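Allow me, if you will, to draw on your knowledge of protein folds for a short while. Thank you for your consideration; the sequence and its tokens are set out here:
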Amino acid sequence: MRFQLKYLIYGAFFLAGGLTFSALTMLYAKRSPSLPAPSLVAESEESRNSSEDHGEHVLVKETEKTTETPEEQTVAIDSKEIFRNSDLLRAYVKKFGLDQTIWQLHQLTALYGDCHQPAHVAGRFAYKVSSKKVFQSFRSECHSGGLHGAIEAYFMENGLQNLSYDVDLICRPELNHFFYHQCIHGIGHGLMAWSNYELLDVLKYCDRLKRSHASCWSGAFMENVVGGLGGHHAHGKSERPNTKYLTEDPHYPCNTLEDKYKGTCYFYQTSRMMTLFQGDFSKIAAACAETTESVQVYCYESMGRDVGGVHRGDPPGAIKACSTVASSPSRIHCLTGAVQDSFWDPSGQDKALHFCKLLTEETEKGSCYTTIFTRAPQVLASKNDLKRFCAKSELPYRGRCLDLIRR
């Protein structure tokens, strides 16, 4: 069985580089994720078109259009076709704006699966339409794919001549820690696309940033595994990846890097192992056990994220998959990665709570609850939302939840 990596790993970036949600202490932006935000797209802006030549992105100016295309005339605000039709997606972005587009893609995940990849495409389209204005606001649904796509398009157009200035323009320092990490992670994606997947160069570019180097590394490593933002994904021997930093060695390139990069690298490496081992979690667990103790936590949490992607909406299946990890501490890391994958936005809170309730071993259950209690303030916008969330947890753990949200 071959696995499409884009459906397994896009929810990962918020943990990379050793950043767990226990470290993200700033509150999530006070903005309702249930309502579409105002359009960011100015209809009169000059747009730019993106094409691909032999796997490389080339930006060329698009002739300004004074009339709507047939797609713009017909695409409806509740369109389902935008998920799989790039022409309609382009028209939707231009007609309704990026925020509304991301919201609609998010609504379609129940039908079509993870929306991060089409959100990437939408972000690239939005940058061509509204240029730098696209960075004035962004939604976190679809794992911030819209932001990532816009960042990629920005670097493809502007290069790295003013890297520090560009990063401050795109990722405003006043953003809360949760959003700022996502944004810098997107910088790592964009640098990989701009550099034609020269991973080692990109890690050094990340080191030039003023702050949050690990967040930038995380985007670079994720993009290396994905193999191409434009849909050129690596699927093992039969297809040639865009990057030269993937081989049949399940530990490459992590095992060749400086120590400071290894943990972040392994946080994405199991998604490569999914391809190499055909989704056999017992083999992935064994490969993680081969790593040094200092990076095992990242490897097992990465495995847990992939488990969550395969068993989305199926907590018993995810728990069973993590049971292939032999040792209890390492199994807890797998469970942590899996439950976090289910709780990215408010709609996932009940799934996360159900996941923890299913666990029977006390240490695993306690760790599970601590994980989602720590995440809740990053995802739920108000104190009342947080209190209602805590009230739905099992009674012995409810007090711990209330203590955490008071901090």
About this structure: Residues 32-246 form one domain. The chain is about 55% helix and 5% strand.
